[in-house]
């Protein structure tokens, strides 16, 4: 079934991104916007905008589906965050006769439950860290002793660092477990947690996959190890400083998991690379478009949103694995409204100036301009600066030059932090782990943030 009218059930830069592809495909777009976003750039770009209510209405399945039905939308694209991986939204769309641009509700449930996802990964032959669910202090203590310290407590339904606690020894375990269970219950409505050994020197590397239910392909890998509190800040494709056999094995593992699930749409299989051992293990699979998808688009020459839509229309994959040619190197910098020198405090307000670079192999995905309001209700992402070069050295130089041309005023931003990162010797060499950024900031006495270890899934 061809899609003629699509509801964009999201906000910010991803809403602009979806609208751009729909316009190229000749698909009419209707933006579902909260009261806080009615005057934002996405509302001006969409063919039509429908108000869904208060600022947090993006989390209401009922309001989103009602909006799609009221405008006669054929399809709904959830973007990322909010309800993007919510099986209730997928089911409600199906009940209303609306195409959900994403995987099936069953796949969302299977991957949203981290314990079930681990089981699918094991069945697909994908390496998984030892560990398992724990129900109380006694079972947690027994498993932690078996795994060895330090360990990580993780929420079964978690993500983004919520319900995740590092434990370095037995005296800390009971309290960490109670806090993690409480956070998991509050954030996800699911108190289940599990333990796994903490990899203290790990890299966050992920593989982009596309599937049509019958066949899965990969579009290469990305490194997302520059993180603070499990939230990604810099991403690049391909992941630098990876041994070719390890890279190939990770890509095969991602495809194997997609094939086992009969996966439909765009997805990301996230791995933890143990730097010391030269091995990798499964972290999770994100059943949606990722914030960092542009770096893959740049090196693969593929519009991932267009491919999502094609699969949602019932078409088989339009790309074979042998057609995928990865060229050059791409780097993405997340530009956030935050006072990074003051413990990364959010910085809502009015943007008084917004100047972004224009040039060959420079891409800016943004939803802001001079006069845009940065409301306090949402993620602080303002823009993504993406550059593409013939190799990593060229991409890094282009990123530095492009970053120096960026100017955002009226709110605090992390532009200065990115300039420091891009000029750091260790980052320039490539292959830093997830503990590098906190250590770098602490060593330079810029700001001190926690160093949790390598098993994050931000």
Fold and architecture overview:
With 458 residues, the chain is of the alpha+beta class. It folds into 3 domains: 5-101, Rossmann fold (3-Layer(aba) Sandwich); 130-197, ATP-grasp fold, A domain (Dna Ligase, domain 1), CATH 3.30.1490; 202-443, 2-Layer Sandwich (D-amino Acid Aminotransferase, Chain A, domain 1), CATH 3.30.470. Helices cover 34% and strands 27% of the residues. It is built from 15 helices and 23 strands. The protein has helices at residues 12-25, 41-45, 61-70, 87-95, 105-112, 114-123, 137-147, 170-188, 244-261, 293-300, 304-312, 392-404, 415-422, 425-429, 436-443, and strands spanning 5-8, 28-34, 48-53, 75-77, 99-100, 132-134, 151-155, 165-167, 193-197, 202-212, 216-228, 231-237, 264-274, 279-286, 329-336, 338-339, 345-346, 349-350, 353-355, 362-366, 373-374, 381-389, 407-409. The strands form 6 sheets. An 8-stranded antiparallel beta sheet has the order 14-13-10-11-12-15-22-20, with helices on both faces. It has a 5-stranded parallel beta sheet with strand order 3-2-1-4-5, sandwiched between helices. Strands 6-9-7-8 form a 4-stranded antiparallel beta sheet, covered by helices on one side. Helix 3 (61-70) packs parallel to helix 4 (87-95), helix 4 (87-95) packs antiparallel against helix 5 (105-112) and helix 7 (137-147) crosses helix 8.
């Amino acid at each position: 079934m061809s899609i003629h009218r699509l509801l964009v059930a999201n906000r910010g830069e991803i809403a602009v991104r979806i609208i751009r592809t729909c316009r190229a495909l000749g698909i009419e777009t209707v933006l579902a916007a909260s009261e806080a976003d009615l005057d934002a750039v996405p509302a001006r770009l969409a063919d039509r905008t429908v108000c869904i209510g208060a600022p947090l209405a993006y989390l209401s399945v009922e309001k989103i589906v009602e909006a799609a039905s009221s405008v006669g939308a054929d399809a709904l694209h959830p973007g990322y965050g909010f309800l993007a991986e919510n099986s209730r939204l997928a089911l409600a769309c199906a009940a209303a006769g609306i195409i959900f641009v994403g995987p099936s509700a069953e796949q969302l449930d299977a991957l949203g439950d981290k314990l079930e996802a681990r089981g699918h990964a094991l069945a697909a032959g994908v390496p998984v860290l030892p560990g398992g669910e724990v129900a109380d202090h006694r079972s947690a203590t027994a498993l932690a002793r078996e795994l060895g310290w330090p360990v990580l407590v993780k929420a079964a339904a978690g993500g983004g660092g919520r319900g995740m606690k590092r434990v370095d020894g037995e005296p800390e375990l009971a309290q960490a477990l109670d806090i993690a269970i409480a956070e998991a219950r509050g954030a996800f409505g699911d108190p289940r947690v599990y333990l796994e050994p903490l990899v203290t020197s790990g890299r966050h590397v992920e593989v982009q996959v596309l599937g049509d239910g019958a066949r899965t392909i990969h579009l290469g890998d990305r490194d997302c190890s520059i993180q603070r509190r499990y939230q990604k800040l810099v991403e690049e494709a391909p992941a630098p400083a990876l041994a070719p056999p390890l890279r190939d094995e990770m890509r095969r593992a991602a495809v194997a998991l997609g094939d086992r699930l009969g996966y439909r749409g765009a997805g990301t299989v996230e791995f933890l690379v143990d730097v010391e051992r030269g091995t990798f293990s499964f972290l999770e699979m994100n059943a949606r478009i990722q914030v960092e998808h542009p770096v893959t688009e740049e090196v693969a020459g593929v519009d991932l949103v267009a491919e999502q839509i094609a699969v949602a229309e019932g078409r088989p994959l339009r790309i074979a694995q042998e057609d995928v040619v990865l060229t050059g190197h791409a780097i993405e910098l997340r530009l956030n409204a935050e006072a990074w020198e003051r413990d990364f405090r959010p910085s809502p307000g009015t943007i008084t100036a917004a100047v972004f670079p224009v040039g060959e192999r420079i891409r800016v995905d943004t939803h802001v301009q001079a006069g845009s309001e940065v409301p306090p209700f949402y993620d602080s992402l303002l823009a993504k600066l993406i550059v593409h070069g013939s190799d990593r050295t060229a991409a890094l130089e282009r990123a530095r030059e492009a970053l120096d041309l960026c100017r955002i005023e009226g709110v605090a931003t992390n532009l200065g932090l990115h300039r420091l990162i891009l000029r750091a010797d260790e980052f320039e060499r490539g292959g830093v782990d997830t503990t590098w950024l906190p250590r770098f900031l602490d060593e330079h006495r810029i700001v001190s943030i926690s160093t949790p270890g390598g098993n994050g899934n931000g």
